[in-house]
Fold this sequence. Notes:
There is one protein chain. It contains five helices and 20 strands. It is of the alpha+beta class. It has a single domain, classed as YerB-like (YerB-like fold, 3-Layer(bba) Sandwich). A hairpin with a 6-residue loop joins strand 9 and strand 10. The longest helix is centred in the first third of the chain and has 67 residues.
Amino acid sequence: MPRSTAPRSRPGPRTGARTTKGSRSSRGRTAKNRRRSRSGRGLRVALLVVLVVIGVVTWQAAERRLSAVPFLESVVAGFKPSPPAWPLTGIPADAIADRPALTVKVENSVDARPQTGLGAADMVWEQVVEGGITRFVAVYHSDLPPEVGPVRSIRPMDPAIAAPLGGLLVFSGGVPTYVTAAQDAGLQVLSQDSRADGFHRTSTRTAPHDVYAVPQTLVDQADTAHRASPAAQFDHPAAGERPTAVAAGEPTATLDLTLSGVSHPWWTWSAADGRWLRSEGSTPAVEADGRRIGATNVVVLRVDVVATEARDPAGNPVPETILTGTGRALVASGGHTVEATWSKPGTADRVTLTGADGAPATLAPGTTWVELVPNGTGSVATG
């Protein structure tokens, strides 16, 4: 018989042994894979939990930041810079003119009234000169009027008034030593007798009451060392605060001052005008155009006045106001007055005002007249 060509089969036991061994290995790998799978799922769950927690915390933080925005906006608004203010008046302005202070000597005799340009001055100082008449030291910065006058001569106390301002000192004539003292105090002097530009004589007045000046022409002559704006001369309250006289002073309707036997300035508070109105004795003080002369603040400084060796043409001794040291003061603002102390260590220092509590006495934003009332012969009364 022919042989069969079918392959032989291997013995069963050997084949079975191989099958059994393969099954054990497969089960081991499967268990290990399940353990690895459970471990991976655990890590993924843990990672997901962490991510969820981070997301929640982040969202809460974002909510807090969003809820704080209005508060932050209000805080930022509170720190917005204040608008600029004119240094001599404290009145806010969109822009401050870059020009020097212009200090002009203005006459105040009967023959000189009514004057021109006083209402435009940021500050006016009144001083006693020979014969008991007074003279003004008018300071211009925020406003330059078309004309100022009558312009008169320099006096020994003028450097102490003008030096803290820097800038220009304008006058018509004067003792050479007074002129030198002004220059030594760091001021640029412009005088009519030295033929500076900007002076003219008017035909409506007789000499020596006829000299007038054009402020802009005078300012244009400032040299490079005298072009800077002045520093503040008095303190003003912060926004939302009241000036010292209003906050701590007494209601006052009138200020009755005696500077000499022939000089009796009278100031009356006008609520309608929001300022103090000036009178020369019982006569309302007006400018040449008829406008009433007034001021937001009136500051009274009690000062010593001494006679110098100089004489005027009539033989009267030229007095000098001592404007360094310290003394009593009265500050009038907003229909109120308050007592204070003034101090000025040196010629170049500004006058500082201190209240009874030791804090700086502040003025209301606006114009200021400073009355230099002699200690011995002058007087101050309020009503």
